[in-house]
Amino acid sequence: MGIVVHLDLLLVKRKMKLIDLAEKVGITIANLSILKQDKARAIRFSTLEALCRELACQPGDIMEYTPDEDPESSGADQDQSE
Amino acid sequence: MDKSSHFSFAGILKFILGVVLVIGIIWQVLVLLAFLVTMIDPGSKANLFSTSAIYSLRDVLPAGILQAQSSDPAARIDAQPYVWIIMKSGTRGYLLLTMIGYFSWVGLFFIIILQLRRFLATVKAGNPFCRENASRIRTIGWSIVAAYLLKTAGEISAVAYMKQTISVNGHHLFSQPFWLIWEYLRFDQLFAGFVVLAISGIFRLGTRLKEEQELTV
């Protein structure tokens, strides 16, 4: 699983559309869609800061870490962290 | 240099390669027809498969009229004093071997042109860093290496054939083995192939960086 993004839930809670959020944050809707669909490889701190500002939340509200269910891949992750 | 000049240069180069490809295909079809005629009648005028031995004149006495002989009964020698000896081989086996090597080399040449045209199309579109281009450049690199090996093998076999069968004024051609190595075992084309293979690695890395950059929010 890894990092899971809850942007869609936050948008519903704040009653905001993706296109409006993209305009306020200053990134394209295509890029924001990448984040929303969990396809992003990285996020800039500037983008994260803008998201937190516009959604009035903390970074942990936008994303959370979920350990992988597969024991082999979790073993590989442990090796990488070492 | 701005983007538009890159793209127009790629477009012009792609067009030139396209012209070379079309002319090359037409020419090779004619060569293939000549080869087929020659296989049927080696003595015909369609026999284009001559081997020039101009370099051999350095190690034979140039004075006087050259008397060239061949131990290959199927070969015909046309000797031009002080210029070169043109051997038109009628040996079918040697011809077939030559043509296999020749068309293999031509095939690799066409592969290189086709891959290069597809690569230039992506450059023209402004998207050169993609997985397909890394693969194309790798194909070009290996084709250059393979073409070099084929060319070298063909030239060495041709020299070996002439060395055994042709003599001028009683001297056998290519009598100096060092000359053979120096003239034919040049590594510049092989080096070029390795350079292109290294560049394909750079494109692979560039593609990965581009994908990561595109997926960075």
Largest sheet of chain B: 3 strands, antiparallel
Oligomer: heterodimer
Structural class of chain A: mainly alpha
Using only C-alpha atoms, the radius of gyration of chain A works out to 14 Å
Low-confidence stretches of chain B: 51-65, 80-87
> What is the spatial order of strands in the main beta sheet of chain B?
1-4-3
Helix content of chain A: 55-70%
Indicate the proportion of strand residues of chain A.
Answer: 5-15%
- End-to-end separation of chain A in angstroms reads 20 Å
**Any idea what the shape of chain B is?**
elongated
Largest sheet strand order of chain A: 1-2
For the report, how would you describe the main beta sheet of chain A?
Answer: 2 strands, antiparallel
Rg of chain B is: 23 Å
Shape of chain A: globular
Mean pLDDT of chain B: 76
Element pattern of chain B in H and E: HEEEEHHEEHH
What does this protein look like?
The complex is a heterodimer of chains A (82) and B (217). Chain A is mainly alpha-helical and 82 residues long. Chain A is built from 6 helices and 2 strands. Chain A has helices at residues 7-14, 18-25, 29-36, 45-55, 59-62, 71-81; strands at 2-5, 63-66. Chain A has a two-stranded antiparallel ribbon with strand order 1-2. In chain A, helix 2 (18-25) crosses helix 3 (29-36). The longest helix of chain A is centred in the middle third of the chain and has 11 residues, at 45-55. By secondary structure, chain B is mainly alpha-helical. Chain B has helices at residues 3-40, 92-125, 131-165, 177-184, 188-214, and strands at 50-52, 68-70, 76-79, 85-88, 166-168, 171-172. Chain B starts with a helix and ends with a helix. Chain A binds chain B through residues 27, 31-32, 34-35, 39-44, 47, and chain B through 211-212, 215-217.
